[in-house]
Write a sequence for this structure.
């Protein structure tokens, strides 16, 4: 399968503080859903979308990620160092030279999506049609809004929006909608210029949402409301929920897991 977008960046250099203490010794993206590290789901989604050149952004502490991919030969993996965890925008900026002027995907391994057709493949189709950046969108519950990037947008059809602006981690009262940006992006190459001009924002980090906002104000940016089940595995509750959802669907494991949960008499 060939794709009009050939390269992808997987940022994995965050500190993973919500998973302390295990992330003192293990990279967050190596934590598994059953036996499969979350980063493997990101790589499989890209491969199934026809994207096989991948740059993983790592810190000096992520030697386990290098080790894991040492014997993988069906995708071309490059490691790029982010010296300090200065935020997602800064992590993506480290890949500018490697991306070399092309449009590219970004997949956050924390955001695991179970769906028959890969989310990134659908987003590449939208990019091919409009030649614009595309972000994945999901309607979220009010309590999640202050932790996410939230958009103001116009609906084009039931799965497509045009983004007018976006705001990182708004107070609930200031949120422009309940539609949040989830970790799948197709970026036109000029995003690097917008990131470079983005000052440190929420939490003192360079936020990709601020760069997308600047791009959306000047150019068109589209949002894709993806189908399927999404889990934020960047926190222990989300990883547990993803693991349960994955296991119950497995014919070998599902019935045993369900009868075990019932046996707990809760
Ligand atoms: P998160 O903010 O969810 O990850 O970033 P984190 O910072 O590791 O988590 P906490 O808040 O400390 O628990 C989303 C993605 O961006 C990467 C992370 O590794 C994760 O995959 N990231 C984040 C970087 O690569 N560099 C950064 O400076 C920040």
């Amino acid at each position: 399968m060939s794709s009009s977008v050939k390269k992808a960046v997987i940022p994995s250099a965050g500190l993973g503080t919500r998973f302390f203490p295990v992330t003192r010794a293990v990279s967050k993206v190596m934590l598994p859903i059953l036996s499969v590290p979350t980063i493997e789901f990101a790589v499989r989604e890209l491969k199934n979308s026809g994207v096989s050149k991948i740059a993983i952004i790592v810190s000096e502490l992520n030697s386990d990620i290098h080790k894991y991919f040492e014997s993988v030969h069906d995708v071309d993996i490059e490691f790029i160092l982010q010296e300090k965890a200065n935020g997602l925008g800064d992590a993506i900026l480290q890949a500018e030279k490697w991306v070399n002027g092309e449009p590219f995907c970004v997949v956050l391994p924390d955001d695991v999506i179970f769906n028959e057709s890969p989310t990134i493949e659908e987003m590449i189709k939208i990019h091919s049609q409009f030649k614009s950046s595309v972000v994945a969108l999901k309607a979220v519950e009010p309590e999640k809004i202050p932790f996410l990037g939230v958009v103001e947008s116009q609906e084009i059809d039931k799965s497509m929006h045009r983004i007018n602006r976006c705001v990182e981690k708004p107070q609930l009262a200031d949120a422009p909608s309940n539609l949040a940006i989830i970790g799948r992006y197709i970026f036109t190459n000029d995003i690097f210029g917008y990131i470079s001009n983005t000052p440190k924002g929420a939490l003192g980090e360079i936020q990709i949402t601020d760069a997308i906002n600047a791009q959306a104000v000047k150019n068109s940016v589209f949002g894709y409301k993806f189908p399927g089940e999404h889990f934020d595995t960047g926190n222990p509750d989300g990883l547990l929920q993803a693991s349960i959802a994955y296991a119950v669907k497995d014919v070998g494991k599902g019935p045993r897991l369900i009868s075990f949960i019932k046996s707990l008499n809760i």
The chain has a mean pLDDT of 95. The pocket of uridine 5'-triphosphate is lined by residues 11-18, 28, 57, 82, 85-88, 90-91, 108-110, 234 (CB under 6 Å). The CA atoms of residues 260 and 266 lie 11 Å apart. The domain at 7-250 is CATH 3.90.550.10 (Spore Coat Polysaccharide Biosynthesis Protein SpsA; Chain A).
